[in-house]
Amino acid sequence: MNWRDAVTLAGREIRRRPARAALTVLAVALAAALLCALLAIAGTARTRVLSQLSHGGSLAGISVEPNAPNPAQATLDDPAPGLPRPLTEAAVTQISRLQDVLMVLPIVVAPVELLPPATPPAGSTLCPPTAVGSSTRSCGQGQDPGSAATVTPVLTTSAIGANLGQVNALPITLLAGRLPIAGSGAEVAVDEQYLASLGLTSSHASEVIGTRVELVTFVPATGLATTTRYQTAEIVGVLDEEMTSGDIVAWPKLIETLYSSETPPGQGTAPIDGAIVIAKQLSQVSPVRAAIAAIGYSTAAPVGLILSVGRYLHVVELVLSGIGIVALAIAALGIANALFAAVRERRREIGVLKAIGARDRDVLRVFLLEAGMLGALGGLFGTVLGMGMAAGIAANANAYLHSQGLSGVALSVPWPLPLGAVLGSCIVALVAGALPARRAARLPAREAVDA
Amino acid sequence: MRRPPPANDPPRRTPASNRRRLAVALASAVLAGGLAACSGGPNAFSGPAPQRAGPVVTYVSVTEAQQDQPGDARTSWTQQFYRSSLPAWATAYELDLPSGWEFSEPSLISEVLALRPTVVTVALGLDEAFDGTGVLEFAGALRQLLVALHKAGVPTVLVANVLPLPGSPPDSSELTSLIHAYNVTIATESAAEDAVLVDAHDAFARALQTGQPVMAYGNSLTTLGENLMAGAFEAEAKHHVFWR
């Protein structure tokens, strides 16, 4: 029997029992898809995420304080600033020109008083002033209107301004909504402290999205009168943390208009409260910190964190690979089971083949070819499915990242992965089919025909 | 000999073709399910759509301080006017003028113009009217302010006249004459510089005649009075909207 006859026989057998063949192909395909998707995702997590973190990402960020350096802080992750020292525009420019500095993000802060909406949003435990003592109007969550606290109208705090276009470098995470659009002077994001001032918990964060907050600032008297400045801004996002230096975040344009009413709106200058310096590489964080200290400012950076992140990612990769291997082993068992069943069902056919002159190796070849075809089909189908799954998961992850104002992560699929998945499926199928094929080949012709 | 089936008979399905269909359907369902599970639903983190702001609206109120705390500001007529008559993106500046301020204060004009206003409201309280400033002196100071605002190209300038006296004090006729003189001056100067006259005097006089408590503690405005004042300004402002 030549190869062509063997291929014809194997193909005919697959076509004869399409349901069984399809189920076997499906088992291989699912296993290959799972392995393929898991390896692609794990590879992406390792090569892209870690790479982005370590190459100019937030982990390579150095927080520069408006303080003189503390000689003992160089090896500390936590800030340990020295005496106060104003961070000037000139100093920021000087830092941005340092070698190995990718970017510098100045942070401006303005003291502000917030007037929340007169009526508390849904879910608030506070009552509007008119509801106090009212027996007909309920407010809050199960509270007696007569005893419920009324809205505290003023929240004295600070507004933080930063280039939110470089949000990858900022230590902020969105709980709901989005970040203010580029350069906006009318949109802000608030933190959980603001929610608390309205009697809201983080589970009601979405209730404040789209509401307006009034920002009140006072300008010191320069002549006739003091000036009170009122500006409303739309809350477009809620941050998932309580910030230490303020409760609202916006673009610097808004903060600068708040800071000074003496100059025309938009032309005020707020003092720089700090800066985030991004080093080009994680390995260059320490030299950059030393250079900033030499200029005369205190710094802080989470150098040790990325090592932990790297270790955890490696563990995740191992676990994902383990799951994939288990899936592939289950698929191999499925193939072996299908071929054993085929041998049992085709004993008579094997006997006839042998009776008309087929040798053991011819029968072995037919069964191995059948296993190989099932493996190849399953591998091909599974690789396409696995790539689709990985792309779908990556698209979902990117949608979340984009909603957070972060740049997406490109799916990293090295070319050996799909090739290896198809070849690997073939090899697994051949290995799984070897035993049934060998059994079929050794079946005596008379015994097979009698069966 | 086997007879061929009639042409209108449906094609017979063999067990093998049924199995093939089942296999294809099963594979398609698994593929579709897998891809659907990965594609996810709508993004839960989408915030409100950005709103396009109109032209710059900077409102400056020139009046005596009405409140002590920002939280009290919601009830003052200037704040009501800012919130209800001006667009959401407007910025408001309140010059918290000290009690007893003089309208002829030279720094007033420069302070107002430094804010680059597009909407200005001017209101002279009774206390200011009776602080000893003569009508002619007041007329000169008001003219200077209005001319400066006109030259600066401020699109909307609203000037309220002096409110009537609450009750009937002993020297009411003399005071009423003084108020009338001030109001004539305000009307003249406003007309000369294209400012809009807000006839708050008439609105309050009608309210007082009907016994509405719009003024209390002498000359200060009650909550109802603040509402009435804001309404008087709003009624005139809606004819001079430039921000839509």
Structural descriptors:
heterodimer; A: 451 residues; alpha+beta; 2 domains; 47% helix; B: 244 residues; Rossmann fold; two-stranded antiparallel ribbon
Give a written overview of the molecule.
The complex is a heterodimer of chains A (451) and B (244). With 451 residues, chain A is of the alpha+beta class. Helix content of chain A is 47%, strand content 15%. In chain A, strands 2-3-8-5-7-6 form a six-stranded mixed β-barrel. In chain A, strand 6 and strand 7 form a beta hairpin. In chain A, helix 1 crosses helix 9 (360-403), helix 2 (18-54) packs antiparallel against helix 7 (303-345) and helix 2 packs antiparallel against helix 10. Chain A is elongated. The model of chain A is unreliable at 131-138, 140-150 and 261-268 (pLDDT under 50). Chain B contains eight helices and seven strands, in the order H-E-H-E-H-E-H-H-E-H-E-H-E-E-H. A five-stranded parallel beta sheet of chain B has the order 2-1-3-4-5, with helices on both faces. The longest helix of chain B is centred in the first third of the chain and has 25 residues, at 15-39. The N and C termini of chain B lie far apart (90 Å). Chains A and B meet through helix 2, strand 4, strand 7 and helix 9 of A and helix 1, strand 2 and helix 3 of B. Strand 7 (226-239) of chain A pairs antiparallel with strand 2 of chain B, so a sheet runs across the interface.
Report the radius of gyration of chain A as a whole number of Å.
34 Å
Chain-averaged pLDDT of chain B? 75
What structural class is derived from the secondary structure elements of chain A?
alpha+beta
Overall geometric form of chain B: elongated
The CATH topology of chain B is given as: Rossmann fold
Determine and state the CATH class of chain B.
Alpha Beta
Anisotropy-based shape of chain A? elongated
Name the helix and strand elements of chain B from N-terminus to C-terminus, one letter apiece: HEHEHEHHEHEHEEH
Sheet of most strands of chain B: 5 strands, parallel
Structural class call of chain B reads: alpha/beta
Helix content of chain A: 40-55%
The oligomeric state is heterodimer
Helix proportion of residues of chain B, in percent? 40-55%
* Number of helical segments with 4 or more residues of chain A: 11
Low-confidence stretches of chain A: 131-138, 140-150, 261-268
Largest sheet of chain A: 6 strands, mixed, barrel
Strand order of the largest sheet of chain B: 2-1-3-4-5
